[in-house]
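We include this case.
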Amino acid sequence: MRTTLNSKAHWIPAVLIFAPIVLWIMLESMNNSGAVRFDYSSYLLLVLLLCWGGLAYTLLSDYQQYSFDNQNLVIKNLVTKKQTLVSLKSITNLKIHEKSMRNGNYHNIIVETKSGEHTLKGIYVNEMIQFFYELEKSVKQ
């Protein structure tokens, strides 16, 4: 079984790309009306800082994809492309943790293994409850 990203996660990088463009249009319209004056060197510095902030935010985000087969649970970070393999035989306990946010509930799956603990974050992931039950069934087999 494989989880998918919710559409909100795909829009965050797109918004970070278009935010400086919208800001530039707003600043240009303000400059033309005479309300606020910016010289171009400070504007370019502002756009550069926004772009670097957006890049840092995107790289520090944990957009992950989870899948498993009969032997392994695969945790793939979609930004860094790093994969973590967890053997289903090494899983000692599975728990589902529900959290509430402004825009709804989301579920984290806590996977305890012999070597440590992994948290499968469900904030941008659809069908985490179904994924939990399928994973639990595979671990018990």
